[in-house]
Amino acid sequence: MSLDAEIDRLYSLPLAEFVAARNTLARELRARGERDRADRVKALAKPNVSAWAVNLLWHGEREAFDRLLEAGAAVRAAVGTGDSGREAAARRREATRSLLALAKKLLSDAGHPATPAVLQKISHTLDAVVARGVEEADPPLGRLSRDLEAPGFGFLAGIELPAAPRRGAGGGKKAAARTRRAAEARAKVADSSPPAAGEARRAKRIEAARKELEEKRAALAAAEAKVERLDSELAAAQKVAQETAAAARRAAEAARTAAQSETVAKTAEKEAAKAARAARTAARRAASAVESGESRLAKLVG
């Protein structure tokens, strides 16, 4: 099995088995001298529950996932082309609902609560997949460890959703005027924001997010190190338990052998005692016969 296939297998396992299976694979690769591959596997992060569910959808529900990808491609193609994209958007919503229903069942079957918060994170990741497509997915689909950030409203900005037609010649003109006024209002709001202040706020948010991410990565590394240490302790304890069990089995076998030997010895002792009694009885009878013969002989001689 190739390394990519092994990694896909890791992300398809039950969530509780991920760390142990990843560490086992890394040890096997290192034992074969494949240090770079072992380091690559060791660096794989354990998914959170919502990312794990999306991975399982990718690996196990590919037909439903492909419907979402096809609808997403159609939505992206409609952006900026003047196409309304209504049909593609409807197919995208239906595919998302279908995948969410499947995710809810997967979570329930695996013993994970399908809470609204978890389902919302899954929905955001699916929206991000629609916006970016498979080619832009990083990490690749099926190997997510964290949720993907949902696209903003700007993703759909180029899709025109025209109002329903009205009776009369002036309906279309009025709708066009409303659309133009709304666009001008959005432009004025955008122009009124001081660029420097906006950039400063954005930089501050980015720095805070980066710091939070570093803290979470450090906490993850510490947790995984603890898991690895506990795995080593467990392996050592299991080895001691196996050796103790083997010694106990050997002692029990020796005890059974000793008990059987004792039984044989007691049986032999009983048989010997019985033979001795029979011999004594035969000796007494022989002595009596000799005594009787001597008596008859004495009578004949005398």
Task: Lay out the secondary structure.
Blueprint: H1 3-10, H2 18-31, H3 35-42, H4 49-60, H5 62-78, H6 86-109, H7 116-132, H8 170-192, H9 195-301
Could you provide a short overview of the structure?
The protein is mainly α.
Describe this protein's structure:
- The protein is mainly α and 302 residues long.
- It has a domain at 47-159.
- The chain is 76% helix and 0% strand.
- Helix 6 packs across helix 7.
> How would you spell out the order of helices and strands?
HHHHHHHHH
Number of strands: 0
How would you name the oligomeric state of the polypeptide chains in this document?
A: single chain
- Helices, by number, come to 9
Range of helix content: over 70%
Distance between the termini: 113 Å
Low-pLDDT residue intervals, each spanning 5 or more residues: 156-170, 185-193
* Global outline: rod-shaped
List keywords for this structure.
302 residues; mainly alpha; single chain
